[in-house]
Amino acid sequence: MALRSGVTRVVALAGGVGGAKLVEGLAACLPGGALTVIGNTGDDFRHYGLHVSPDLDTLMYTLAGIAHPINGWGIADDTRQMLSMLARYGEETWFGLGDRDLATNILRTHWLAQGAPLSAVTQRLCARLGIATRLLPMTDDPLATVVYTLEHGRLAFQEYFVRYRWQPTVQRLVYEGAETARPAEGVLAALEAAEAIIICPSNPLLSIEPILQVRAIRQAIMVRRAPCLAVSPIIAGAALKGPTVKLMTELGLRADVAGVAEYYGGLIDALVVDHADGDVRIPQRRFVTDIRMMTPADRRRLAEEVLLMIGDLA
Ligand code: FO1
């Protein structure tokens, strides 16, 4: 099938750990240079003066094969000496930034301070880790996911997600900076040249929506020529990981596969769902397979299947 054999231009939208798993599979089964990943930067924050980009780092470490195998975020075998010294100074250490991870954030902050845009910094870090896949931040401008909660009012994303372990009741999400954020260098060109656009199984509201909040990105996907397919982050009403179901429920959205289909609407031509949701009816084309990705082999298999499904759509 044309796409499979000649596949040269696939664009994936992804956030943190869940999306990174499919990105790992796609990178493993596509020729080097065929995959461009547009990563969420709505989780970014300043931490002791460092510019931390958690989802870009999760994607980068995953693509470099050095991500922590259990957490998905941070670096495998990393140590916590810096954190233990912060604790000795009486500082809070709920954000578990490891020592090796610290090097990434020191370099990012250093290069940003020299005037390099986030996209150039990301490209340089990936090149030095030997990553063939192109990783682009959704924007080089500030765009922050802010969470308004019942218990603690306005929370920065990492406070909500890590410090309070996404337990607070969410009343509203605001994507601060969305009105002025522009797509990063290369993003629109990649979307326009894409033969396939894949929305990875990340949290639709916390990882994918911030990317879509960059208006020109949403518009590019709405007027796309290539087929766009999403993989469900929910199986039988349960999130594969994190707060997806809890959050969609709190925001009054249907927190199941039909709700995900409704949320993406015309942005996608198809949704890949698990066998457990095999009977759910949605307006888009529906593909049914095992969408759990517990092992690298699972990730590669699902990626292979997704590329076949997209070929079927093209
Ligand atoms: N997630 C956690 O749940 N606990 C942590 O201590 C934590 C530390 C951390 C350090 C660096 C980094 O790049 C990511 C980190 N994350 C941690 C993940 C981060 O919160 C992401 O925003 C989530 O994975 C959501 O995408």
Domain count: 1
Query: Which ligands occur here?
Result: ligand FO1
CATH fold label: Rossmann fold
CATH class placement: Alpha Beta
Outline of this structure?
The chain is of the alpha/beta class and 314 residues long. Helices cover 40% and strands 19% of the residues.
Keywords:
Rossmann fold; single chain; binds ligand FO1; 19% strand; alpha/beta; seven-stranded parallel sheet
Describe what this molecule looks like in 3D.
The mean pLDDT is 96. Helix 2 (17-29) packs parallel to helix 3 (54-64) and helix 2 (17-29) crosses helix 13. With 314 residues, the chain is α/β, with parallel strands linked by helices. Strand 1, helix 2 (17-29) and strand 2 (35-39) form a beta-alpha-beta unit. It has helices at 2-6, 17-29, 54-64, 81-88, 99-113, 118-128, 157-163, 187-193, 204-212, 215-222, 244-250, 257-264, 296-313, and strands at residues 10-14, 35-39, 45-47, 50-52, 134-137, 144-149, 153-156, 170-176, 196-199, 228-231, 234-235, 238-239, 270-274, 285-289. The chain has 13 helices and 14 strands. It has one domain: Rossmann fold. It is 40% helix and 19% strand. The structure holds ligand FO1. The site of ligand FO1 has 17 residues, from helix 3 and helix 7.
